[in-house]
Amino acid sequence: MRYQLKAIGPGGGVESIDSQAPDETTAVRQLEGRGYTVLSVRAKHTLGTPWGARSRRFPVALFSQELRVLINAGLPLVEAIETLGQKERSSEWRSVIERIVAVLREGQPLSAALEQFPQAFSPLYIATVKASEKTSDLAPALARYVAYAGQLESIRKRVVNASIYPMLLIAVGGMVGLFLLLYVVPRFGHIYAERGTDLPLFSSLLLSWGNAVDKHGPVVLGVLALLVAGIVYALRLPQVRTAIGDALWRVPAIGERLKIYQLARFYRTIGMLLRGGMPLVAALDMGAELLHPMLRARLAAASRAISEGRNVSQSMDANGLTTSVALRMLAVGEKGGNMGEMLEQIAAFHDEELARWVDWFTRLFEPVLMALIGLAIGVIVVLMYMPIFELAGNLR
Q1: Is 393 exposed, middle or buried (CB count within 10 Å of its CB: 0-12, 13-18, 19+)?
Q2: Looking at residues 151-157, what average pLDDT do you find?
Q3: 215 and 348 assigned to the same domain
Q4: Which residue in 20, 275, 317, 358 has a CA-CA distance of 20 to 30 Å to 304?
């Protein structure tokens, strides 16, 4: 992202400088490293992006994979990260890596360097690295995180792929409906107006719409465009998305699947942190941000119970954070002392269950959606031709 900085230069003069950096803090530090004293910082938005500029996400999984390979090849940590910075094409992310190297050369640990870039590295990633520093197994920790990220990406792709065809149906059906309403219906309105034919109520309403489009076409199109833009803008607001999410949670069938999805992601995260050496209670607190606020409150109660010495399986079940399968596997993990591995197996089981449900729902939803779109288009066509049908009946 580009920033406009006003700063006092080494010579004492005030200068206005353009800088590219992942966040405001990095931009300030880059300039201060060159001997400037920063007075103000302002983000610059490029033209042609009415919804505001969105900075690209740092490729954490790729960075971790390449860093793991270099460490396993025998390179020291600082040299390995410096090598990644040299091959990075994006100047924005190259500056992040160079700053990480500078912090490491000051003698600070990698986790402390990553904490300075919260927009690039999530708290979960930083916690994974911090836990590995205690056991000196950074490469295995990075491998676990790469596998974790890959599994989450696989789930996301399944959901996206399942939604492509329904969205395509909605788009095509919407365009056909708009074509009928904005082009065909107005022409039928002209025909019936010239004939002076008495129309049924619903046909009259439809053709009144057609006449309005014919007489005030630019206004109608403008209103429709503003309506679409307003919907898109509203969907980008966090408050609206939160409200939609809360509404979906109240739907029994969908809410239950959303709960299982979040629990599966939560179990996988906690399992990865436990295998990395993090204590259970700390791992639970770290994974709380992955849960819906309602489940987050339950997790806090379960975490308190675990801190008091109660069983993990019983505490999680008492607060509604398990399924029947997860409860049994948690109990087995407690007895066997392999809680981290068992949590990841629970997540894998529920991921497969969700994949089957998404496949079933898609197969059911697609024909229902096609029927609804066909019904809507059919109603418009029938209302247009209904006066003709009545005229033919009268002639008989």
Answers
A1: exposed
A2: 80
A3: yes
A4: 275
For the chain, state the CA radius of gyration: 29
Instruction: Please count the CA atoms within 13 angstroms of the CA of 183 that sit on its side-chain side.
Output: 6
Residues 130, 174 share a domain: no
154 and 139, same domain (yes or no): no
Does 343 map to a domain?
yes
Query: Most distant CA pair in the chain: distance in Å?
Result: 98
- Residues 267, 268, 269: CA angle, nearest 5 degrees: 90
Residue ranges in 45-122 assigned as alpha helix (H):
60-72, 77-87, 91-105, 110-114
Tally of structural domains, the chain: 3
Q: Do the beta carbons of residue 17 and residue 40 sit within 8 Å? A: no
Amino acid 32: pLDDT? 74
Handedness of CA 111, 114, 118, 123 (dihedral sign): negative
Query: Which residues does 105 contact at the CB level (< 8 Å), separation at least 6?
Result: 78
What integer pLDDT is reported at residue 391 of this predicted model? 60
Evaluate the CA torsion angle 372, 377, 383, 385 in order and state its sign.
negative
- Using the 3D structure, point to which of 126, 147, 168 is the last residue of a domain: 147
What CATH number corresponds to the domain at position 346? Answer: 1.20.81.30
Quick one: 192 and 315 in the same domain?
yes
- Clarify whether residues 21 and 91 are in a common domain: no
Do 231 and 333 sit in the same domain of this protein? yes
Residue 51 counted as domain residue: no
Indicate whether 240 belongs to any domain: yes
State yes or no: pLDDT of 196 exceeds 80: no
Q: Domain check: are 205 and 227 in the same one? A: yes
- Within-domain flag for 163: yes
Show the domain range for 118.
60-147
Question: pLDDT, tens digit, for every residue of 53-110?
Answer: 444 678 888 888 898 898 888 888 889 988 888 888 888 788 888 888 888 888 888 8
**Which tens digits make up the pLDDT trace of 167-184?**
888 888 888 888 887 777
CA atoms 347, 350, 355, 361: torsion sign? negative
Answer yes or no: is pLDDT of 310 > 80: yes
Phi and psi, residue 289, nearest 5°: -70, -15
Band (pLDDT 50/70/90 cuts) for residue 395 is low
